[in-house]
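Journal club prep, notes for RB
We'll compare a predicted complex against what the paper describes. Inputs for the coenzyme A case:
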Amino acid sequence: MATTEHEQVISGLEGVLACESSVSFIDGPNGVLIYRGHDIHGLAEQATFEEVVFLLWHGRLPTRPELANFAGELVRRRTAPPEVLRLLEMLPATAHPMAALRTAVSAIGALDPRQEDTSREANLEKATRLVAVMPTLVAAMHRQRLGQAPVAPDPGLSHAANFLYMLTGERAADDSVRAVDTALILYADHELNASTFTARTTTSTQSDLYSAVVAGIAALKGPLHGGAVDDALRLFQEIGSVEAVPAFADRALAEKRKVPGFGHRVYRTADPRARHLKTMAQTLSHAAGDTRWYDIAIALEQALYERKRLNANVDYYASLVLYHLGFPLNLFTAFIVCSRVAGWCAHILEQQANNRLIRPRARYTGPVGVPFVPLQERG
Ligand SMILES: CC(C)(COP(=O)(O)OP(=O)(O)OC[C@H]1O[C@@H](n2cnc3c(N)ncnc32)[C@H](O)[C@@H]1OP(=O)(O)O)[C@@H](O)C(=O)NCCC(=O)NCCS
């Protein structure tokens, strides 16, 4: 049935330009990713996560005083409300960690007296609170599941160092802190991916920032998006040995199985983020004297490239990085939330500044003119 002047349905909205954005850019054919004009490689190698969050929200890198001020604001907002920690405790151990995190963020929003204030100033404050508190929530969830009390944030530590500290209760080595910083930077934004589009769509209805972030978490949870990161590690465990890789690759492709950590909607070559994570995975697994999963990962990457020119994406080696940094498998996707919340908030701010309701159409494929049969005549 005719519904609109544009009759063609674009499956999965592939290649559709849904908005203008100056937050990040992906050059898919050439494997380039930039945040606000900065190539991802320079940021991954030299910046801190705090600098990158400022960059995403303000469009430029901070000066030294601005960075000190912003880092201080993050530190001051690290503590999770006690009501939210109690709420997390009330959830059953069977709750999916992303469902628990989604619930906690929703509660943080409901507790904020300024929840409905959508001014840029209020939204920047909310965004700062969410970036600051997310690792506290994730670390608390981890410790609760181990039957341990949460570790209070340490104001003397950087965002990345404090994340590891709250997770383990111990000060982490500089190398581990740098690895967390780099992983947080690499995941911080990625143009109009499914969760960011979801957050922008929610914002386009003039809903509040917390609701948009909760919507983003809900979209990120799925295995085709952020859920792929823990599936990738499970895959290495399922394959079990390097020798089993060729048969696995043949079988997976014959069964048309979507192998977690491979493929991408936009990149037509290597995912530029994967390069850094691969190097980090190699370093961390060798330092741990445990290269079991890394060796399988290398063999599988080669096998799937040879057979189908499939490239590993960001989640593939991130799974190994998070594993060796001591993150529990069931919190890998929650780690991504700690990073991507920065990008979601940048897009929410941008959407609000130039908003129009996002409301596409569907091509109707159902029947028309179906007569109404009264209930008593329907049997
Ligand atoms: C990310 C993803 C959803 C993109 O999907 P998409 O853009 O719709 O890509 P398509 O499903 O059209 O794939 C194109 C081709 O590559 C193949 N392909 C893509 N990703 C694949 C994967 N992970 N494993 C095996 N084959 C894959 C498809 O089977 C298809 O092959 P065909 O043309 O012979 O049918 C998809 O690659 C995927 O499911 N990956 C695994 C999950 C994942 O790692 N997600 C995190 C992304 S950062």
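Talking point for the session: The longest strand covers residues 24-27.
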